[in-house]
Every structure is written in structure tokens, then in C-alpha cells.
Amino acid sequence: MQKILSIIESMAHEKNLSVESALEAFKEALINTAKRLEGEEGEYEVEIDHDTQSYHIYKVLTVVNNDDPRAQEEPEKYITVDEAKSYDEEIEPGDKIRSEIHLEEYGRTAAANLFQELEYHIQRRIEQDLFDKYKAKVGSIIIGTVSRVDDAGNTYVEIGELKGILSQRNRIKGESFKTGDTLKALLRFVSIDPKYGMHLELTRTAPKFLEELMKREVPEIQDGAVEIISSARIPGERAKVALKSDRPDIDPIGAAVGQRGVRINAVSEELCGENIDCIEYSPIPEIYVTRALSPAIVQNVRIENNNTAEQKAIVDITSDQKAKAIGKSGINIRLASMLTKYQIELNEVEGIVERAPSGTEEKTKDLSALENLFK
């Protein structure tokens, strides 16, 4: 078996596995083979000599006092001082005795066991490397080719060495795929189960997918000049993204939207026409909530801290703006709440926001919003 190290290296290259991982698998295989032949309870060590391309397996016994009960209870691990002196007269309790095991003496039985163990551990190492490789990509966009769609609406995607699964609940409502389509999705996590083996769970509905798409389309986000603070989505319908930039020469909203909306439109197209509102983040909660409720114009915002995990924002709004703040089926206020992490409560106040002639800004007759400025 002296040439087996060269075989191990060849296997590593063939299976795209590092030589170090392959050698670790070989060591585990040697130890398990020795346990089958010599005893499961024993302790074993393996040394590999790369210069001579050889390996050595040792059974290790720990020396204990003559009256130590472990010598009787676990003879495969412990040996008394008196017995150990037959190996070395100067040996003391706590020392280790190593005796070499020669697998060749066990003939074909050893070879068959070693091959079986090696095959198993090499495969485990390959799977572990794959797991680590894709685990590092969790939260990023994965591109693959649709291989099939089952009756339950689950879409199976070929991605490199593994298969990805885009379940129906992780798919944007109304979209469909067919075999051969190129699919872009966010990697949620790497999973191992008895039915599918190791596979990648994909999603196109997570807010993080929107953020990663924007990062790809907007260079300022990719290089860190513009930061995405938060995002909220109702997949396939509408989304809100809060952006900020610490550089005075960069407009975060303009950078995200792009000239004539080319950047944000590219993201929207990937999300089946999802409308995306970009707002500028503010560390001042009242301003942040006000911007999140756009296009509605609010009169005043009060933040209530009730010493609970969920903070509340009381928003004063006129009757003509209330419908805009709520949005169709409550979508606008839901997204604003998800984006800001505040429970938003609308408080209708008197006043009307009038629509001024074209080219001018909207004005309100209600001046109550200015009262807090002079307190």
C-alpha cells in the first residue's frame, strides 16, 4: 500500500478536492479501519511521511498506576506501569505507549475495509466543501437554468454542482418558468434533507433580493457611496427602499433611479413590474416616517415610546391625503411601517391640501404643523 498516497492525490485532483482535505479523509479512513480490525474502543494515531510517501498507524495506550481500575475496565486504552515496563523500564504513569499496526497483515479484509472507508470519507469531504462554498454565498444572487417545474409549482434549477429549489411561496405572484429558462434568485440557505439531498433554497420575494438587484444596477451602491438602510416589499406589487449617502456630491435617490429611470426600471422589470419607491433616509424618526408615507403629504408626526419592542408613530393627516397614505388595500402604510419599523397610526385633522396650478408646489391652509417649531 506504499503507493496509496499518490492515488489519494490523484483522487483529490479528479474530484476537485484539495489534497489536504483528501489526506484528512485518508487519515479518518485508516483510523476507522484500524478500529474495525483491532477494537472500536482503542485510541489510534496516523502519521504520514510525505518524503517517503508512506504512512504509519499506531495504537496508543496510556500508562496508569497498578491499582487504577481503568486498566481493567478499558484495557484497549490503558495499561498498568508493571505491564508497560516490558516496553520501557523508565516509563511512568501518564506516558503513552505506541504500537504500530500493519494493515497488510490482515490481507484483503483490511484492503476492502480501507477502500470502503476511504470512499465514504472522500464523499463527505466533497459534500462539506460544497456546503462551505455555497454557505458563503447565502444572501447573494444565484443564476441557474430551470430543469423542471413540478405539479406543486416548485421550480428546480441547475446551479453548478448542486440543484436549487424555488418553491411556489418564494416565487413572485403571477410569474411562471419553463424548462430551459435562465432564473435569477437570492440564495436563502443551503439545506440537506433525505428527499433532495444537499440543495439550495432560493427566493425571489425577500427584500434582500431587491437590495442585491439594486447593488448590481447602481455602481454607487456597489462601491459604498450610497447605502441601503432598509427595504420593504409586497412582492410583485410595490416596494420602498430607504437610501443615504455621506457624500455631499451624491444624490442617493438620483443615483438609484438613474438617468430617465433606467436603473430602477431594470430592477422593476426583473421583479415583474414591481413599483419601487426610493426615499432618502433620515436619522430623525419624524422625518423618516414622513418620507416613508409619500406620496401622501402629512401634517405632523409624533413618536410614542411605550417601552415596548414596537414603537408607534402618530401621524396627523388631512382627509384628502388619508387615502394616499393608506394606499390601495393598505399597501402604502404597510410598506411605510415595514420600512421604518414603526407602527403607524393615522390621525385625521382638519384642513385640505390644495393642488396648486401646474408647475407649483402643493400648499396647505392648515398651519398647525408649524406649532411645534415655536415651543
TrEMBL record:
<keyword id="KW-0963">Cytoplasm</keyword>
<protein>
    <recommendedName>
        <fullName>Transcription termination/antitermination protein NusA</fullName>
    </recommendedName>
</protein>
<comment type="similarity">
    <text>Belongs to the NusA family.</text>
</comment>
<keyword id="KW-0806">Transcription termination</keyword>
<dbReference type="GO" id="GO:0003700">
    <property type="term" value="F:DNA-binding transcription factor activity"/>
</dbReference>
<dbReference type="InterPro" id="IPR013735">
    <property type="entry name" value="TF_NusA_N"/>
</dbReference>
<dbReference type="Pfam" id="PF08529">
    <property type="entry name" value="NusA_N"/>
</dbReference>
<comment type="function">
    <text>Participates in both transcription termination and antitermination.</text>
</comment>
<dbReference type="GO" id="GO:0031564">
    <property type="term" value="P:transcription antitermination"/>
</dbReference>
<dbReference type="InterPro" id="IPR010213">
    <property type="entry name" value="TF_NusA"/>
</dbReference>
<dbReference type="InterPro" id="IPR003029">
    <property type="entry name" value="S1_domain"/>
</dbReference>
<keyword id="KW-0694">RNA-binding</keyword>
<dbReference type="InterPro" id="IPR030842">
    <property type="entry name" value="TF_NusA_bacterial"/>
</dbReference>
<dbReference type="InterPro" id="IPR036555">
    <property type="entry name" value="NusA_N_sf"/>
</dbReference>
<feature type="domain" description="S1 motif">
    <location>
        <begin position="139"/>
        <end position="205"/>
    </location>
</feature>
<keyword id="KW-0804">Transcription</keyword>
<dbReference type="Pfam" id="PF13184">
    <property type="entry name" value="KH_NusA_1st"/>
</dbReference>
<dbReference type="Pfam" id="PF26594">
    <property type="entry name" value="KH_NusA_2nd"/>
</dbReference>
<dbReference type="InterPro" id="IPR009019">
    <property type="entry name" value="KH_sf_prok-type"/>
</dbReference>
<keyword id="KW-0805">Transcription regulation</keyword>
<comment type="subunit">
    <text>Monomer. Binds directly to the core enzyme of the DNA-dependent RNA polymerase and to nascent RNA.</text>
</comment>
<dbReference type="InterPro" id="IPR025249">
    <property type="entry name" value="TF_NusA_KH_1st"/>
</dbReference>
<dbReference type="GO" id="GO:0005829">
    <property type="term" value="C:cytosol"/>
</dbReference>
<dbReference type="GO" id="GO:0006353">
    <property type="term" value="P:DNA-templated transcription termination"/>
</dbReference>
<dbReference type="GO" id="GO:0003723">
    <property type="term" value="F:RNA binding"/>
</dbReference>
<keyword id="KW-0889">Transcription antitermination</keyword>
<dbReference type="InterPro" id="IPR012340">
    <property type="entry name" value="NA-bd_OB-fold"/>
</dbReference>
<dbReference type="InterPro" id="IPR058582">
    <property type="entry name" value="KH_NusA_2nd"/>
</dbReference>
<dbReference type="InterPro" id="IPR015946">
    <property type="entry name" value="KH_dom-like_a/b"/>
</dbReference>
